[in-house]
Structure formats: C-alpha cells, structure tokens
Q: What sequence folds into this?
C-alpha cells in the first residue's frame, strides 16, 4: 500500500518513529484531510489506525502513543540491547 | 492522599449482531481533541475504537474507575458510537515509560552467536541442534540458518555447565561431549 511521508505536520519525535515504522515494518502513514489528524496504519490490517498528534505534546502523550503502537504490533525502540 | 499519574487504555467494540460497525473519522478526530488535555491518543477503525489517556489517581483500581466513564462521556460528546467497553486497563505512568523504553523485539542468536555463548564451534552448535533433545527449538529457520531466542541459549548454557573450574584443554562440558 502506498504511504505518505511524514513532514512538518507532526512533531519531530513522532516523525522519527513514523519514519522507522513505514520504512522497516510496512506501516502506512496518511496525512490528514483538512483539519483532521494524521493516521498511522499498522502492518497488521486487523489493527485500527492510530491518530498522530499534530502539535508538540507532553511526555505522557508521547508515552501513551508509543504504548498504542507497541500494542498494535509496532516495534519501538528498534535497537536490541 | 498520594496521587500518581496513570495511563488508561479503554477499548469499545460493537455488541454482537450490531449492524453499523463504522466509526466516523470526524468523530474520532473530535475525541482526540477532547482527550488532548488528558494526554490522549485515539485509534479508530471499522469495528471498534480505543483511547489511551492519562489521569491522576490514588491507585490503578481508581484510575480505571475514573477513566472508563470519562472515556465514555467524552466519546459521546465527540459523536463516537456508544459501544460496550470490552477492555479497561490502567498502568502507572512510570511503569509504562519503563516498558516503552525496552525493545519489543526479543534478542536473537544465530549459529555463530550461540557458539560464542556456549563456548563451542559453530559446527558443534549445529550438531547439538540436530542431536540433543534438550537443545532449544529455533525461533526462526531462515535460508541463511537458524535463529534462537538468546535467553533460551543462555538457559541451555546454564543447564549444561558443570560446576567447578573447566578443564584446561576443553573450556566447557559441551566441548567434552564432542569427543
């Protein structure tokens, strides 16, 4: 499936994760229509698309977003320890 | 009373037999807006939606008891379908942060890495995998070779390591078995 590339419409820390997921794990990113939120579609199509915050947000928001990505099969951080 | 931050995850799905399974994208965006002050994230698609957000509570129990109705209330305000809650979980925010910091991919070991862990040759690892019933099953078998969970190889090494100093000529009992 064709994916959009993330740009300035989302904050930098989110962009880094989105880029990793679309480049390495076959996730798909969709830029918003109008004022809506961008969406990140998991490679497992049974999982629901996750909204991506558009403005810099709290550390808690970022943590909740990462938890949602991991819950839906995404891997972050990618490095092995 | 001591309060901590908790991350709440609420999932709603249509009841069995429901006809309309769609979630309006604008409603999901509206819920994302409403949850912004609670550090919220929304996932929505056909057949369900979920929200992950934060609030302060004195315990995980209280966080769920406060969080689930809050999600329901804001979802109704946003125009989301009113479906039954099928999951409500709370985790203290620092515990979630700790989980998020650890890689989700398990650490794997190929033949050369397993050989290094066990202190034997790569050939010996292949022999053990083929002949020793207690050797771990590989997690993956690729065209380039087998991959094991590193923890399984570590556990095998611990199981088969005899106590005491290894003999000078042969560093581990696994090598001794090779003769």
A:
């Amino acid at each position: 499936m064709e994916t959009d590339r993330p740009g300035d419409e989302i904050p930098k820390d989110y962009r880094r994760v989105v880029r990793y997921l679309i480049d390495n794990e076959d996730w798909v990113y969709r830029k918003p229509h109008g004022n809506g939120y961008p969406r990140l579609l998991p490679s497992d199509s049974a999982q629901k698309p996750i909204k991506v915050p558009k403005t810099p947000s709290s550390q808690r928001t970022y943590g909740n977003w990462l938890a949602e990505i991991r819950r839906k099969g995404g891997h972050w951080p990618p490095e092995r320890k | 009373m001591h309060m901590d931050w908790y991350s709440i995850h609420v999932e709603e799905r249509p009841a069995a037999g429901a006809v309309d399974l769609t979630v309006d994208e604008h409603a999901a965006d509206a819920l994302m807006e409403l949850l912004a002050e609670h550090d919220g994230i929304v996932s929505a698609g056909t057949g369900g939606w979920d929200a992950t957000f934060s609030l302060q509570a004195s315990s995980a129990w209280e966080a769920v008891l406060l969080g689930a109705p809050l999600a329901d209330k804001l979802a109704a305000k946003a125009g989301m379908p009113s479906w039954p809650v099928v999951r409500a979980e709370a985790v203290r925010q620092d515990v979630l942060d700790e989980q998020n910091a650890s890689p989700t991919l398990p650490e794997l070991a190929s033949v050369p890495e397993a050989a290094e862990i066990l202190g034997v040759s790569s050939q010996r690892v292949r022999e053990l995998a083929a002949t020793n019933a207690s050797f771990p099953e590989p997690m993956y078998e690729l065209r380039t070779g087998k991959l094991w969970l590193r923890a399984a190889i570590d556990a095998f090494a611990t199981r088969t390591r005899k106590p005491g100093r290894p003999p000078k000529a042969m560093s581990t009992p696994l090598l001794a078995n090779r003769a």
Observations:
- The radius of gyration of chain B is 26 Å.
- The beta strands of chain B are 4-12, 41-45, 48-57, 85-92, 108-109, 140-142, 145-149.
- The longest helix of chain B spans residues 60-78.
